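DATA SHEET
Item: assembly model
Revision: 1
Owner: S.N.
Input lines:
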Amino acid sequence: MQQLSNGLKGVRLHQLLSKETHGHLQTSLENTRAISTVSLWPFSSQPRDFSQPNSSWSPEMRKVYDHYNTLCDPDTENGEEKRGPWRKLPSYNRSIKYAAGGIHLSKLIQAKARLFTRNVKEQGATFEYVVFVNKEEKRCVCVFQAGHLLEGAPGHVHGGAIATMIDTVTGTLAGFLSGPIMTANLNIDYRSPMPLGSVVLIHSALDRKERRKTYITCKVSSTDESKLYTEATALFVSIGVGHLFGSRN
Amino acid sequence: MQQLSNGLKGVRLHQLLSKETHGHLQTSLENTRAISTVSLWPFSSQPRDFSQPNSSWSPEMRKVYDHYNTLCDPDTENGEEKRGPWRKLPSYNRSIKYAAGGIHLSKLIQAKARLFTRNVKEQGATFEYVVFVNKEEKRCVCVFQAGHLLEGAPGHVHGGAIATMIDTVTGTLAGFLSGPIMTANLNIDYRSPMPLGSVVLIHSALDRKERRKTYITCKVSSTDESKLYTEATALFVSIGVGHLFGSRN
């Protein structure tokens, strides 16, 4: 903890601190849905939720989205709404402003900074994705459509783009379960090349927690889960909330 | 080998096959420099080399670039030019067309596809980098400036963006040493968060070769190498050149 408090040494501050998972820092697991309607955004206008369906989504992407989105609907029993374990998480393109690294940045860079996975305006060009989390089973699933600007080998998705989604999804789950965290390790096995334009499922689950360490497993597969593209493990280390706000003053 | 020949199973086809390292497939190690001037680009106009200095480069980026670029200059002894072990590699934004995945892609996606690390037109916004390789010592160094669109945690570079550069640099070295390869594993330890706007060195070196496997080590540090940001190992598996061209017909 000493080490972490001292200049964030040891591990990388995770995007949990970004606006994407901002809600986790301020709301309990019980009212995640409320983030979508009651804004915690500190600026004047409501931000765009990038995980909403748009015209670039293929029928396959839309179908899988609809499947999981329906799981988020409440059941009505005896006139009372009953919520299941599934929640859809919103996704924004801007980080919150209490940047630990703010001291390193020019004002210009701060103003223009955008979340890596949401930095291209053209819909469908890069990362189209939405994350659904199941709090009871301590797991989440991301539906990801890989755009044409993510090319590595000809016609295939860059390994770095796949790693980016793995970091994003495992980090979102770790933050959901453990609060503020930083990525300490990603270990990624590329099993099969992923064609550009693919729609895939990224399943992440809690492996175990050991004090400040949260271990997450991850599998990237075709939407029917018949083809495995990538497997990974991820380790996140918890950091104190006070630490996040420490550099605000 | 059977497994690899059969639909590229087992590992991810690396960006070695992209235009970025296209030259490696067609030239020997002896005339790498010639790629910059004698185009192997299959289209009509000369492509832009994205690794040339531009106005977005900070003085620090430019200084380190100049240092390594000077190492690439030939010495003149007794009126004869003598080349040292260092070479600068060019970097383009488009993949070559014999895409193994081409069968999966619509013509639209094929035409618009861009290398992930070179897909944003605004200079300085994302990945500014240049790779220098030392063939005698079987290592390379990349100078990388992280732009404001690579944000993960507030004010810091996204772990996926760092993973992307590690895949790119280790894959470039592996391809240089072993010919056509695919990424099979990346194991990344994030030691310290990297502020947005940082200029860093990415050193990669051959660990060992075992038949079709090439093991590469990687360290990401500040330019004076006093601060370690990330350490990684990478495993690449060789694929046959015939395989690359197999899907052309």
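QC remark: Residues 54 and 150 of chain A are 19 Å apart (CA to CA).
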